[in-house]
Amino acid sequence: MLFPTMSFALFFAVVLGVSWRLNDRPTAWKLFMLAASYVFYGAWDWRFLALIAGASVVNHGVALAMAPRSGALRRAWLVVGLVVNLGTLGYFKYFEFFTESLVRMLTPFGLEPHGLVRSVALPVAISFFTFQGISYIVDVFRGDERTYSLLDVALYLAFFPQLVAGPIVRTSEFMPELHHRRNPDAVDVARAVRLIGRGLVKKVVVASFMAELVDPVFAAPGGYGAFTVAVAIVAYAVQIYADFSGYTDMAIGIAKLLGFSFPDNFDRPYASASIQEFWRRWHMTLSRWLLDYLYIPLGGNQGSPFRRYRNLILTMALGGLWHGASGTFIVW
User: Fold this and answer.
1) Which residues contact 318 (CB under 8 A, 6 or more apart)?
2) Distance in Å from the first CA to the final CA of the chain
3) Active-site residue identified among 114, 179, 283, 323
4) Are the beta carbons of 68 and 190 closer than 8 angstroms?
């Protein structure tokens, strides 16, 4: 189920009304919203509901196991959580990519491991709820967050507005709002409607129009002249920005109508004066996730120049791979 569809409009109309009716009954609200989020997720493929539910159980269990412990045992439970999260993400998103790459490397040497490559269905939103699960257990490990109930964790990972395309919401941003009564009079409806309207225009109008220019050229670039290819490249930059930022604009607006304030995800990235500034403005919640949970733990900009550049290259390469399971994303 995607935002700019009639089926989602009908779904959200029901969810919005029931949500505010249950506002004074926190447990009932959480159960209803979790059920609605699972309906939203299961509309794509109900079989993968077990995956997101399993991620909730694992991250909740790891956090509970870590909380009363310290030292090596606490770290061991964190490693367990990271292995399960990253292992699941790696299998579904990268198994086919890595096995195909391995076969291509071995074939020139006469080695063709038959049966190694197989198609693996990619569950929608697995990157987003995996990263949110990792941030939860890491924050508990660091002592920055307390543990929460299984219902809270499940809703945090599955909350449908940000599930498909972000923004990546931290536990510290979601849980306080989850545990406070939402005031319908405090909802900035005008801004929410502006965000949803702006997102619809970006995604349905701008991105779709640009796709008509881009898709034929990218499918067969050899059949077009240099000028047309250059125009298509610029159009693709507009298309991918309008598509992605449009969807997250809608997500932030939809969450706001439900009483939640999500962080902004884009800040006019093409107005940046440098590549460094661009990354501070493009998919901002991912950039700060990579900064706080990968770059700084690796050592950040501390140590020798070699270590600093190693940390930077690893972070950016993994950030590229996160965007897509392809060698071109690593190079990019």
Assistant:
1) 290, 294
2) 30
3) 323
4) no
Asked if 202 and 249 touch (Cβ cutoff 8 Å), the reply is: yes
323 is catalytic: yes
Q: pLDDT 10s per residue in the chain (332 long)?
A: 788 889 999 999 999 999 999 999 999 999 999 999 999 999 888 888 999 999 999 999 999 999 888 889 999 999 999 999 999 998 888 887 777 777 777 667 666 666 666 666 778 889 899 999 999 999 999 999 999 999 999 999 999 999 988 799 999 999 999 988 888 888 999 999 999 999 999 999 999 999 999 999 999 999 999 999 999 999 999 999 999 999 999 999 999 999 999 999 999 999 999 988 998 899 999 999 999 999 999 898 888 889 999 999 999 888 888 888 788 888 88
